[in-house]
Amino acid sequence: MLFTLFEILLSVVYLILAIAIHEFSHAFAADRLGDPTARAAGRLTLNPFAHIDLVGTVVLPLSLMLLSGGGFAFGWGKPTPFDPYNLQKPRRDAGIISIAGPISNLLLASVVALIVHFLPYTFGIFLVPFVIVNISLAVFNLVPVGPLDGQKIIFALLPRGLAYEYQTIMNRYGTLLLIFLIFPFFGSSPIMAILEPIIRFLIRLLLP
């Protein structure tokens, strides 16, 4: 029981770090594309405290992990601000800024998984949850439902007229749809039923 609690707390710490890297990557991409908003807000940093939302980054993930016995967690950081008027191609650049977060988590998961391959089992086992957390965060954020990154990525890829219709729908109903997808009907959430096979595949691909 103590070890399980330790694993849960470790996973929450890893989630905080993964969210910090995720949000920093959004800020870095925006800064490189000519928008200083995130830098001015103090978000161009790897310091987790700059990106923590108390409820979304700490309270909710810890509560879900404890209630599910470490089987499920969901969380978010403070949204990284950017001003589309500072971007040369606002729709395309917003998509680049959005996808930077998930890509950073997948890259980090790959690097840490490679390190795990070369570490003794007794040490590497403590890094495995970090790989899993980063994969899960990346995959979850690619869901094309507002306010997740996937919405802005799809918005950038769709033809202009369809993109703005899609954005209007997401602005009105995206959060409600996301809550519906997360809510655990009959013991499991609909979104996890879809994402879990993808997450498991990536974990098997990366980890020994």
Automatic annotation (TrEMBL):
List where the protein spans the membrane.
53-76, 96-119, 125-143, 176-203
Kindly give the membrane topology term recorded for this protein. Multi-pass membrane protein
What are the recorded Gene Ontology BP terms? proteolysis
| Cofactors demanded by this protein | Zn(2+)
The signal peptide annotation in the UniProt record is none
| GO cellular component annotations of the record | plasma membrane
Spell out the CDD domains in the cross-references.
Answer: S2P-M50_like_1
Name where it's found.
Answer: Cell membrane
The molecular function terms of the Gene Ontology recorded here are:
metal ion binding; metallopeptidase activity
Span of domain Peptidase M50: 12-119, 126-181
Write out the entry's keywords from A to Z.
Answer: Cell membrane, Hydrolase, Membrane, Metal-binding, Metalloprotease, Protease, Transmembrane, Transmembrane helix, Zinc
Database matches in InterPro entries: Metallopeptidase_M50B, Peptidase_M50, Rip2-like
Xref: Pfam families: Peptidase_M50
Q: Which family does it belong to?
A: Belongs to the peptidase M50B family.
Q: What is this protein called?
A: Membrane protein
Q: In which organism is this protein found?
A: Candidatus Collierbacteria bacterium GW2011_GWA2_42_17
